[in-house]
Write a structure and sequence with these properties.
Length: 110
């Protein structure tokens, strides 16, 4: 499971992240990811985009410091495309502010 994590992985590192994740699991392991859609007024606005398509937002911590972080908001199609090279049986459930993905890793990464 990876909840509220996928949006913080840079787009160009998706395959690397999933391959590493899969390498720690049994063959044909199930994958469950939950993350959020962009919701105006609920999410911090996107402050910039880079050449890889990554989106960034500004987070202010309780101590008052601000940090620019990767926070990607994906469409359903982009979510599916980001895992389809390594996974089968992909199902994405859109919820009100979140999405849930279930899939099965195709083979164990080496």
């Amino acid at each position: 499971m990876a909840h509220m994590w996928w949006s913080h992985v840079e787009c160009e590192r998706h395959r690397e992240f999933l391959s590493h994740f899969c390498s720690r699991l049994q063959p044909r392991a199930a994958l469950l990811m939950i993350d959020q859609f962009y919701v105006e007024g609920l999410c911090s606005p996107v402050s910039k985009r880079d050449a890889h398509g990554n989106q960034y937002t500004i987070r202010t911590l309780e101590d008052g410091t601000s940090h620019e972080i990767v926070k990607n908001f994906f469409t359903l199609k982009e979510i599916e495309e980001s895992v389809e090279d390594l996974c089968d049986d992909i199902e994405i459930t859109p919820l009100r502010h979140f999405w849930a993905l279930s899939a099965r890793f195709r083979v164990q990464a080496e």
